[in-house]
Fold this sequence. Notes:
Elements: E1 3-4, E2 10-12, E3 20-22, E4 25-30, H1 35-50, E5 54-59, H2 66-77, E6 84-86, H3 90-97, H4 105-110, H5 113-116, H6 119-124, E7 126-127, E8 130-131, E9 134-135, E10 137-140, E11 143-147, H7 148-153, H8 162-174, E12 178-180, H9 186-210, H10 215-218, H11 221-234, H12 246-254, E13 258-262, H13 266-273, E14 282-286, E15 292-295, E16 298-301, H14 307-321, H15 323-333, E17 336-337, H16 349-364, E18 367-369, H17 379-393, H18 399-413
Parallel strand pairs: 4-5, 4-6, 12-13, 15-18
Antiparallel strand pairs: 1-5, 2-3, 6-16, 7-8, 9-16, 10-15, 10-17, 11-13, 11-14
Helix pairs in contact: 1-13, 1-15, 9-11, 9-17, 11-18, 17-18
Amino acid sequence: MRRITLTALVAVTLGNPVSVLAEPQAEVLHWWTSGGEAKSVAVLQQEFAANGGTWTDMPVAGGGGDAAMTALRARVLSGNAPTAVQLKGPAIQEWYEEGALADISAVAEAEGWVDVLPASIAGHMRCEGTWCAAPVNVHRVDWIWANAGVLEANGVSMPSTWEEFNAAAEKLQAAGIIPLAHGGQAWQDATVFEAVALGILGADGFRKAFVELDENALTSDAMVAVFDQMRILRGHVDRNFSGRDWNLATAMVMNGEAAFQIMGDWAKGEFLAAGKVPGEDFLCASTPGDGFLYNVDSFAMFNVDGDDKRAGQELLAKLIVGKNFQKVFNLNKGSIPARTDVSLDEFDSCAHLSAEDMAASSEGGSLLPSYAHGMALRGAQAGAITDVVTAHFNSDMSSADAVEMLANAVANSM
Ligand code: GAL
């Protein structure tokens, strides 16, 4: 654990009936440990310290946050919750229902969050009318990343349909290049699966299947086609894919060993941290199909004792939604700001594409929460789907059997 120690005394008046003089303290649980992620969370640590806070870092490695969520439960069960926790989607409301979360409404109201956050994002941060989490960003999940030089050398362009993707992958494979860099971890399988599903099912089909858990949508012919495409992709990953971390898969694209990666735009954070330039060294495009799968990182504050910790929670919440932090953090992280009033002038072309597509899909009704990143469903339901996706990807299970298993797993998880 690292500690950043500062001794400044800060007057804290927000959110506490008694105005107290307390040194803001925060033990912060998060899973941002890759190169780009660590650079990004350092921005928050520095701002916290610059404002008189003492940060105790509790990083729990593991992309997608599964290990972090296990660590969180153990800490809460032992009666020793961290001060602030990277927490997303319906898991926020699940912890709220357990009575574990602190109310940060006073900060939200003083800072006017309701005026600067889109309603779709604000909704995830509310628990029965109170504010219970602070949003950091908007990550898009449905992206393809590519090594620009590898594509050019092989006469391949960014695919805009799955058929084009499959044709490109065969050409690359014949040329001795790994078509798809992938890490065989359940959450990465789920990430690829939901991007394929959005493309093949369309936005309405995706919503019915993975937001509403509609049985007809889960067992449709289109869902069979989604698993067919997953089987094709399985044929385009290398032999050593099992267990590989996502950022190592990104590195394979960076160094030209592989051509493509299907991953959220935290992958862009890795390219940028390595000094790579979008449009020159690497390319970004949305995965084939219409729509936008969003994944909003946020922090929730847990019930803790002590004015210093409560002061830390208020300071953190305020900084996280602050304009400067939202810009600098997201320039590093690969995402775009959650606030609508941050200029994107300093952001790259991939971020601009993300912002434009987000606005268009919001208008057109195809802005959808990511199931794979815990934005759409409760944990048990999302877990049931991912188990099937992974079981199919790692076996020779037929698409028809996978669809049947999917419908059963979802029914049993409710
Ligand atoms: C996501 C998270 C991102 C990134 C990624 C890989 O779930 O929202 O911020 O950290 O996991 O760890």
